[in-house]
Amino acid sequence: VIFEDGALLAINKPSGYAVHGGSGLNFGVIELIRHARPKAKFLELVHRIDRETSGILLIAKKRSALVSMHDMMRHNCIEKKYTMMVEGEWTEPKKTVELMLKKTFTQGGERRVNVTDDDNDNQMSKTIFYLKKSLGPYSLLEAKLITGRTHQLRVQLAHLGFPILGDDKYGDLSLNKALQKKGLKRMFLHAHQITFTHPESGKQMTLNAPLPKECEKFLQSLS
What we know:
By secondary structure, this protein is an alpha+beta fold. Helices cover 21% and strands 35% of the residues. Strands 1, 2, 3, 4, 5, 6, 7, 8, 9, 10 and 11 form an eleven-stranded mixed sheet that branches. A hairpin with a 2-residue loop joins strand 8 and strand 9. The model has no long low-confidence stretch (mean pLDDT 93).
């Protein structure tokens, strides 16, 4: 738990846990929290992050807080920042990326997202990327989400030729195998910061989640 009061609960979700059950999973983070807190009258996800992504996940403890937070999300009043390590040498200190994304499903029912030129029923995605550190064949980036589309960062970066290390859907699978032997057994994508106006107090809040130990260890091994 990173933060908790009467309206909100913020946790630092580990990689490998889905935020909710479904797609062959009996339970996810929200079901686990409800099970751990049987007396809680209301616990609902404010937003989602991918199963393989670690970092800040917000949960509403009141319906009024959920409605307020969703309203802020619709009006882009919640700022989310992510840390990721990508394959390749990223050279631009700051780069704004805008791409049209299309959701599809594989024959097995797995969700996939592709970049498309067709703006029919598809969603514009926008991210601002910042170079944090060049590490030879890899680059450490920070991303500020302007839109929050499914798999947005993973698809945008793969499309640009800078797949996220350890990404088993959009990444470099042979590189991922080699990196597993070097100790990186997960996707290097972490939701490290969120800024929003508290739905009850009206105060501006910024919550932070430190880089997980396994990512920090891998980063240090390169440095």
